[in-house]
Amino acid sequence: MRTPTPAPQGGALRAALRGAALSYRALFTWFNPLGYLSSRIVRPIGMAIAFTSLATHYGAGADRMMIASSLLAGAGAVVYGMALSIGNERSFNTLGAWLASPQNKVAAAGQRALPHIVDGFVGGLCTYLVCALLYMTLPIGVPQYALLLAVGVLTTAGFGLTLSAVALLLEDLFVGPNMAELVLMVLSGTLVPQDRLPAFLVPLSRAMPLSHVMEAVDGLLAGRPHGTPLLVELAVGGAWALAGVLFVHLAARRATTRLALGTS
After folding, report:
1. Are the C-beta atoms of residues 111 and 19 closer than 8 Å to each other?
2. Which run of H or E residues covers position 143?
3. Interval 90-129: pLDDT, tens
4. Residue ranges per domain, the chain?
5. Which residues, at least 6 apart from 208, have a Cβ–Cβ distance to it below 8 Å?
6. d(Cα 25, Cα 9) in Å, to the nearest integer?
7. pTM for the complete prediction?
8. CB 112 within 8 A of CB 163
9. How far is Cα 82 from Cα 5, in angstroms, rounded to an integer?
C-alpha cells in the first residue's frame, strides 16, 4: 500500500496565507478603497496630528508624541482587526459554522491575525511618514522606526488574541476593542508617559504592549541604548499570546456550549 505523501511545507504556508487573506476580505466592511482610506489611513493620521499639536501647544516636544501616536495607529489596527475577525462572525451569523468546524480555534485566530499585523505596520508607517512631512521633522530614522513598529504590532497581536476570546462571549463586538484602545492610550506609555501615571498604575503599565517600545523610543531620543527594552517587549507580547491561547480555548468551548443550548 502506498503511503500518502505529506503536503509540502510551502503548500501549507500558502494555504495559511490564503485562508488569512480570505478571512480579511470576507469579514471586514472597510475592505474597499474609501472605507480603508478613511478608517486605516485618514483617521490615524488625524489623531496623530491632534495629539502632536496638543503636545506642542502645552510645551512638550513634538518628536516623542509623533512617534507614540504613529505606534498607536499600528497597534489600533491590530487590536480592532483581531477582535472583529471573530466578532464579525457573530454579526454575519456565521459564528456557529466557525465553531462547529473541525479546525483548531486558536490556530484559526492566530492565522487571522496575519493580515492585521501587516495592516498595522503599513498604517503606522504611513502615519509616521505623513506626520514627518507635515511637521518637517524626522525624530528617528525610518529603519529604526520600522523596527520599533514591527515589534509593537507583534506584541499587540498577543494582546489582540485575548480580545478575540472576548469577542466570542460578548454580543457587542465593539466593547472589547474600544476598551482596549483606551487602555493602550492611557497605560502603554505612549500618550501618557509612565512617570506621569499614579504610582499604583505603573506596574500595570509595564505589563501592557508598547510600554517597553516607548522605553526604547525614549532611549533613542536621548541617545541611550535601546536593545534591552525591545527584548522585554517581546517577552511581554509572548506572555499576552500565551494568555490569549488559554482564553480563546476556554471561550470557544463556552461559546460552543451556549450555541448548542440556544442561548447565544
Report:
1. yes
2. helix 142-169
3. 778 888 888 888 888 888 888 888 889 999 999 999 999 9
4. 28-261
5. 159, 183, 184, 187, 188, 189, 236
6. 24
7. 0.87
8. no
9. 34
